[in-house]
Design goal:
It contains 16 helices and 31 strands. By secondary structure, the chain is an alpha/beta fold.
Length: 605
């Protein structure tokens, strides 16, 4: 089994520059490094490689990317190829996937590995789109990959919304790896310098079997129409002097006006347009891989009604018939119509669901858009739907509006939440994944009896790729970060599991949910499902409390929608104090019990 690893050279967040005319990030001249998630994928491939097998690294980018790609060669890759051509500039994820797929077809592929995310664009789409173009299965968010003991296959364990699942399968296959699988590789300056630049092969478009018209700006189905910095909206006040009791008292007074003023309520649901034009319909996948209602999906129906008053949402249910409670919830969330695509065997994989969804898209080809949750399952389904029809896909959207020509403008964060990109699609329907929790579910007085429900028989489906083992780290009934007014997030400054246990009275008294930084999750103190940040959740609590959190940009991006933010850290120079409303410079253990009692009245506890 030979390995191919897809990597990207990215700039540090602090080196970002913008070209307002190109509406793009300027990468030329910026110091580049290998995306940390892709470094993990390369290390996994090198560990899995047996004698006689090869590891080929493929990247797409400017000529300057040769420098960081030397790291891949120094780490042990047999071959490193950089796809670089002026005609590739402006490629979106689908155009990028087309280019990478063409290169893979040229060099051959068995197990294709890549990182789940890149730190600049954060879409998580390229891996699943490559799988769709190769017509092979995809598994995303892998936390473990091993060779099968009794054959040529592989065993892959992936993270799920509530725990983990393990698959036994074989190449060809695309796997994206998550943070927990292994640490990124490290290459010293001396090791990098020892690799000649000539070892990095550079290919232009003439070397690969791809039509230049399908890549670059002209071949991209999505277009960035604006890029703006997401300016901070908080004015931090840091309390550094006095006793612990005095600091807590001062912090409570600073938080009082924020917590006393209610959060702005979401806009009410708009009225249903009459007549309901086919080209104003928005399809929303509301089921998960088991054919059950995905808990965060109804919010997508609600936001269509709020933000797109001339449009109307239809719920897409793939699986057995929905029960009455689910139908009622969909109607109250704002669904106007609904489609049930019957899939005979559940649970199923993203490929089967994508094929069923494509059947509906073919029948509703005038629909304006299709929405999916931006979790691993939703991203896989959306990517496969996009590649099968050449449709534009926007990843991790947090906002949508209609333009004068009735096209849709999607807003998505990038570069650790420092920028907001405005993106439109040249295709119909335009596809988008939506960050879970980004939009609020409405509860209207509608009844399920008003839903215009249509049943559709699916096409023939291949046998799905199903796990042979699975487990829960977080019980299904555990309150999520989206269901609590207060979320308490812990960083490494909490000291360890003992410090975490000391927070139990605060969590109980405030009826709060628990969150964590990536490092805490990696340390095994808290399950991955509680991670907040770039590759985790984005809660919108009335109050967020960050305890022992240093303040990395990748973590803080997850708190953009919090109404009020309080941080406690013993380091007065901690970056977290620049991104919150109120900060307390103190040891967490010195103020936890004081905060628990002092804030309880403000929280109605």
């Amino acid at each position: 089994m030979d390995f191919a690893v897809l990597v990207k050279a990215v700039p540090p967040l602090d080196d970002l520059r913008y070209d307002p005319e190109r509406r793009a990030v300027v990468r030329e001249g910026a110091a580049l490094f290998l995306n940390p998630f892709d470094q993990r994928a390369l290390r996994v491939a090198l560990q899995l490689r047996k004698e006689g097998e090869t590891v080929t690294v493929i990247s797409m980018g400017p000529l300057a990317a040769r420098e960081p790609l030397r790291d891949a060669k120094a780490m042990g890759a047999d071959r490193v190829i950089l796809l670089t051509d002026a005609r590739l500039a402006g490629s979106d994820t689908l155009a990028t996937a087309r280019t990478l797929t063409a290169a893979l077809l040229g060099v051959g592929h068995g197990l294709v590995l890549t990182g789940s995310w890149t730190t600049d664009s954060e879409t998580g789409q390229v891996g699943p789109e490559v799988a769709g173009l190769l017509h092979v299965p995809v598994l995303t968010g892998a936390r473990g990959i091993g060779r099968a003991v009794d054959g040529p296959g592989v065993v892959v364990t992936v993270d799920t919304n509530t725990g983990w699942a393990t698959y036994a399968t074989h190449a060809p296959l695309v796997v994206s790896v998550g943070e927990k699988i292994i640490k990124p590789g490290k290459v010293s300056p001396e090791e990098r310098a020892a690799v000649p630049l000539s070892d990095i092969e550079t290919w232009d478009l003439d070397r690969i079997p791809v039509d230049p018209a399908t890549v670059g700006t002209a071949g991209s189905p999505t277009v960035v129409v604006s890029v703006s910095e997401d300016a901070p909206r908080r004015s931090p006040v840091v309390v550094a002097d006095g006793t612990a009791a005095e600091q807590v008292a001062r912090a409570v007074e600073l938080l009082r006006p924020l917590l006393s003023n209610p959060r702005p309520a979401p806009n009410p649901l708009g009225s249903v347009p009459a007549p309901r034009a086919d080209d104003r319909e928005v399809l929303v996948l509301v089921t998960d891989g088991s054919g059950r209602l995905a808990p965060r999906a109804p919010a997508l129906l609600s936001e269509v009604r709020r933000s797109l008053p001339e449009f109307w949402p239809s719920a897409v249910w793939i699986g057995d018939a929905p029960d009455s409670a689910s139908l009622e919830r969909l109607a109250r969330a704002g669904a106007v119509g609904g489609y049930q695509v019957r899939v005979p065997s559940l649970p199923t994989d993203s490929g089967s669901v994508a094929r069923a969804f494509r059947l509906l898209v073919d029948r509703r080809e005038l629909a304006a858009a299709a929405l999916f949750l931006s979790d691993s399952f939703g991203r896989e389904v959306a990517a496969r739907a996009a590649t099968s029809r050449g449709l534009g896909l926007v990843g991790d959207a947090v906002g949508v509006s209609a333009r004068a020509d009735a096209s849709l403008l999607w807003s998505k964060p990038s570069f650790g939440g420092r920028t907001i990109a405005g993106i439109v699609s040249r295709t119909r329907p335009s596809l988008a994944t939506v960050r879970p929790g980004a939009w609020a579910e409405a509860v209207s007085g509608a009844s399920a009896s008003v839903l215009d429900w249509t049943e559709i028989d699916p096409p023939a489906l291949d046998a799905p790729l199903l796990p042979f083992d699975a487990g829960e780290e977080v019980p299904v009934e555990t309150p999520t970060l989206d269901e609590r007014d207060v979320v308490i997030a812990v960083g490494m400054g909490i000291g360890g599991p003992a410090g975490l246990n000391a927070l139990a009275p605060m969590l109980t008294r405030w009826d709060a949910a628990l969150g964590a930084t990536r490092k805490v999750v990696d340390a095994g103190w808290v399950p991955r499902q509680f991670q907040v940040g770039l590759t985790g959740r984005s809660p919108a609590p009335r109050l967020g409390v960050l305890l022992g959190v240093g303040g990395s940009a990748n973590h803080l991006v997850g708190w953009k929608r919090a109404h009020a933010l309080l941080a406690v850290n013993s380091d007065p120079a901690a970056p977290v104090f620049r991104e919150v409303d109120v900060g307390i410079v103190a040891k967490v253990e010195d103020v936890v019990s004081l905060l628990t009692d002092a804030l309880a009245p403000l929280l109605g506890r």
